[in-house]
Amino acid sequence: MIRFSNVSFSYSFHQRWIIRGANFTIPSGSFCLVCGASGSGKSTLLRLINGLVPHFSGGILQGEIDVNGANPVKAGPEQMSRQVGFVFQDPETQFILDCVEDEIAFNLENAAIPVPEVGQRITDTLQALGILHLRQRRLESLSGGEKQKVAIATVLSLAPSILVLDEPTSQLDGQSAEEILTLIQNLARQRNLTIVVAEHRLDRLLHFTDYLVYLPGEEKPPLAGDTRYILLQMDTAPPVVQLGKWLGVRPLPLSVAEGRQMLQNLGLARLNHRSSTSQSTHSREEATQAILSLENVSVVFGKTQALCGVSLQLYASQILCLMGSNGAGKTTLLRAILGLAPLREGSIRLLGEDLSTLPTWKRARLIGYLPQDPNALLFSETVLEEILLTCRNHALPEDVEKARSLLERLGLATYADRYPRDLSVGERQRVALGAILVPQPLVLLLDEPTRGLDERAKSGLSKLLRDFRDKGMAILIVTHDVEFMLTLTDRLCILENGRLVGDGMPVEVLQTLDIPQAQVLQLFPDQGFRTVEEVCQAIDEALFHMPDRSDRQVSLVCHSDDNRPPLRE
Amino acid sequence: MPEGHTPAPFHAWVWLTWMTTILLCVSLTRNPLYLVVVWLCVAIVHAAAGMGELAGGNAPFPFWLSLMVVPLGAIFNALTVHVGERVIFVLPGEIPLLSGIITWEAVVYGATNGLALSVILLAFWVFNHNVSIPSFLRMLPRAFHSVAIVGSIAITFVPLLQREVRQIQEAQIIRGNNLTGLRNKLALLLPLLVSSLEHAFQLAEVMTARGFLRSSASSHQMLWRGAFLVGFGFLLGGWLSRFWGLPVLATNFLFGGAMTTFGVLIYTASRQVRTTVYRSTAFRLRDALAMSGCAFLLIFLIFQSLILEAPFLAYTPYPVLTLPPFDPRVACLFLGTLSPLLVAAFL
Amino acid sequence: MLERLMSNLVILSSTLLGCFSFLYPFFSPQFEQTPSPAGIRVSEMPLTMTLILGLCVVALLFESQQSAANARFVALMGVLVALNSVLRYIEVAIPGPGGFSPIFFLIILSGYLFGSKFGFLMGAMTLFVSAILTGGVGPWLPSQMFTAGWVGMSAAALSPLISRLGWQGKIGETVALAVFGAFWGLLYGAIMNLWSWPFLIGPSDQYWQPGISFAETLARYGVFYLVTSLTWDLGRSLGNVLLIATLAPVTLRVLRRFRERFTFVYLAAEV
């Protein structure tokens, strides 16, 4: 078991306490989930378990930590590595060697495992994770999800008793994330491991969690204990849980199945949804001309056809989301619009003009593109410098006032003189956005913008994008995050094998797809709800407009002291 | 070098022995006829390697390039050394170092030298071609564990860097930088550096979490440093013995002493590093056979020429150009270097 | 204290022996007078000298490696070596004027900021890794590693000098580094020539005349150098100056910022 006794930690004397007064015990063999907003100390807490904090990072530590009898602060990460296997966030930066087998062997060699055992351990571990076929493969050629599995194999080969994973799926796409989460659950069932995971995607893991640790941040002590009990005290939660909290149901439903059960018990399985009105205000398609128009676009890379006859129109003041499985061609589409991928046939027009003669760096004035990893964009000394650099590139006058007002719009006014790479993931993304928006483009393309963001950052981004849309920008977002998509999309398109197979209202198109659905949709199929707010609104109306059901609903009204949270803004 | 894990026909140690043998043969003789025999052996093995019989790989190194060194050596020597009896012509005038008699002896000597150099280049090429990068790194003694890991990290990171360069180029383009001109191209270096340093930090964290061990600290360091100094002492002694005209046996003894000291040093240092070594490629019978062909020749030559100083390989064109001696039995000795080819052909 | 002395002794003797093996061809005609029956003297084979140079490199590597005992050093080193090797591809693929080589820029800066051991490893490992990657492992490798390692190791000596002059962060620093780069640009070429020369002229028993003097041998080398490599080396030298002058200030800022995170390296720096 892992015991924290009055643990407080700060990275340096002039910084605040990242963790304050942590006092809890994670039971042996349990599946423990650690959650909290970005910057609330999840990573720090996890690193305290194997001694990376404070040995690797430095800092000031108070209190005692006991990990299965060992003290990580005294022992140090090298010694703790036999007991605690640590898996990091980014699959790209975890490897030293090039071949899967060599990488795992390296770990075992360093632990001085006798040679005859090494081969056997490698085989056993790879088999347990279902990746035996990857044994001789080069790491470079693997996908993100496969790499992460190899990373897990590397630490698992030492047979630790505790497995710690720091946001293992945040850099992965939807499919790979599912695989990893399923893998972790299988490991938990099959082996006698204590698993500690820090994650944002709570919805997939909550029903499986034995012990929940919540970090409120801002120098408040972490809350830890039984899952449902802690959920009641948290600000954010998956939709099913939110609904349960709002309705005042005990015990809280943790999964979709439990949610359905709850709704059935309350007789709320069918609700009227006045959806059509809220949607139509945003679909102005018929009225205006398309800003960006793709006609019969085809792109070929070598022997594979990445895009085949794609025709798409993008209108002003509209947000269009593009979804599809891996390798469907989504990123290729964005790159084709920018001119980074050559067209085999078809044309792309902006405001009626063919773009094929315009080189990419000129298109950047009209079409802004936020790549998957905005870090490649950031290298100036200050945030303000980044904005001014783009001005210089586009041969625009370097107007500091205008730059500052842009930063204001993005909510970065106070960060103008900070070093960009010191900021959090969400803030860095905004700086990158600022850098791209300098020439005030008409179209904005975003490639998987929700990677690595927590709930708060996602809703902030959603609001920002909706603001831009209202001011007339046409926005195209490639994403796999269904819940995010539902908060802001006017139109949803699906790309499969390079072809466009769906284009229309989000909820309708989603139902034709075979991807993990948003929880709200799973609870209320065919009713067109997009968010929990809409559900709550409909329930409200259902209650107030059905006086003859008052006998059953009395109990709900009594629990109204914990309803009406800020969900309803 | 070939990358990755395509199963190689021969173990890396075989090639190391082969190359050492060739290098020793070349160093021990200036007899052009024997050198031609060695060159032919190397060329045959090299051609077989290039055509994929012995290993997979890239296009063969053209022989012609390596042969160019022969006439170059001949000309350089002929023009700068004015010694010998068979004069071709005389360069008149007072040009420093160049004027004087141009002799056949100098030409032959230069050509032989060029031939030796050509063999060296080819031998190294064959080695490079047949030993994959992971095998090469595994050959490094365990005492240099940290250095080998640095090498591995670097080699693994290079393709990632190349990808990063492309990403940064695109990031620049989408910000309106058209990447023309030196200044804009240099602007790629800085983001590359920053992202590399961040990557290094994350990698270091991962390695620490995985228990990358500190190599054993200063327990024996003084001893090792002392041993190095002793080894250097031997080396210096060996050289000084040349200056003082001591018998060659003394020189050989001193150099031998140096080698032994260093060998022991590295061996004991390797034993100190507390990691095990997992080899996924085994040393098979064919490897042993191929290696033994070269190893016998190596030992024989060391014994005869270095220790006993037998003159059968000696030849010099100076002062008068004569026909070099050629003993077919000696030539056959050199054929021992064909053993990898023979083993590959018959096994 | 004693440990430092021993460490410096090893470094000093390796260096001296290495230099000695470079300069040996100049001395040997004067002293090698007794012809041996075998006709070839092992001690003067160019390969022997390369081998001895290799041993010197091994000694210096071993010595530098003592501080490479933890993950941060190794990871930082690995990544910077990779970066430098990629730069070397540029040298091979797009040959600049003469011997322009972009690798010395980072070697000098790393040695300057992170100490002599780091600098040596940076130089030696860059050459080593890029040789492996381009399939260029050859007899020239030990001397390349030795010399490039020395570029890095000597750059560490600039650090106390510049801080005493108070030039840190100012243009004086860039100028000093550029001059250093120019100097080594020429010296590196000269040393590499010294290495390749014996291969071309062969063992010295062609001098059947007893004892050609040192001066004459030197003169021969002078011609060789002028003819083959002065222009090449000027190209390298000027290239270094250009790179350092344009990129050093900004690179130093970035490296200094990261140095704090890798502070172990700074503490372990010993000249």
Structural notes for this entry:
The complex is a heterotrimer of chains A (569), B (347) and C (271). Helices cover 38% and strands 21% of the residues of chain A. With 569 residues, chain A is α/β, with parallel strands linked by helices. A 6-stranded mixed β-sheet of chain A has the order 5-6-7-3-8-9, sandwiched between helices. The longest helix of chain A is centred in the first third of the chain and has 17 residues, at 174-190. Chain B folds into 2 domains: 12-139 and 278-346, no CATH class; 216-272. Chain B has helices spanning 12-28, 32-50, 63-67, 69-80, 104-130, 133-139, 145-173, 181-186, 189-209, 221-243, 248-272, 285-307, 328-334, 339-346; strands at residues 87-91, 100-103. In chain B, strands 1-2 form a two-stranded antiparallel sheet. Chain B is globular, with a radius of gyration of 26 Å. Chain B starts with 11 loop residues before the first helix and ends with a helix. Chain C is mainly alpha-helical and 271 residues long. Chain C has one domain: Arp2/3 complex 21 kDa subunit ARPC3. Chain C contains 10 helices and no strands. Chain C has helices at residues 2-31, 46-65, 71-93, 103-114, 116-133, 141-155, 158-165, 171-201, 214-261, 263-268. The longest helix of chain C has 48 residues, at 214-261. Classes of the chains: A alpha/beta (569), B mainly alpha (347), C mainly alpha (271). Chains in contact: A-B, B-C. At the B-C interface, helix 1, helix 4, helix 5, helix 7 and helix 9 of B face helix 1, helix 2, helix 3, helix 5 and helix 8 of C.
List the keywords.
heterotrimer, A: 569 residues, 6-stranded mixed β-sheet, 19 strands, 38% helix, disordered C terminus, B: 347 residues, mainly alpha, two-stranded antiparallel sheet, 2 strands, 66% helix, 3% strand
Mind describing the biggest β-sheet of chain A? 6 strands, mixed
Please give the most extensive interface between any two protein chains, plus how many residues each contributes: B-C, 103 and 88 residues
The number of helical segments of chain C is 10
Q: Mean pLDDT of chain C, nearest integer?
A: 78
Could you state the oligomeric state of the chains shown? heterotrimer
Count every helix of chain A, treating DSSP H or I runs of 4 or more residues as helices. Answer: 23
CATH class type of chain C: Mainly Alpha
Total DSSP E strands of chain A: 19
Summarize the main sheet of chain C: none
What percent of residues of chain C adopt helix (DSSP H or I)? over 70%
Helix content of chain A: 25-40%
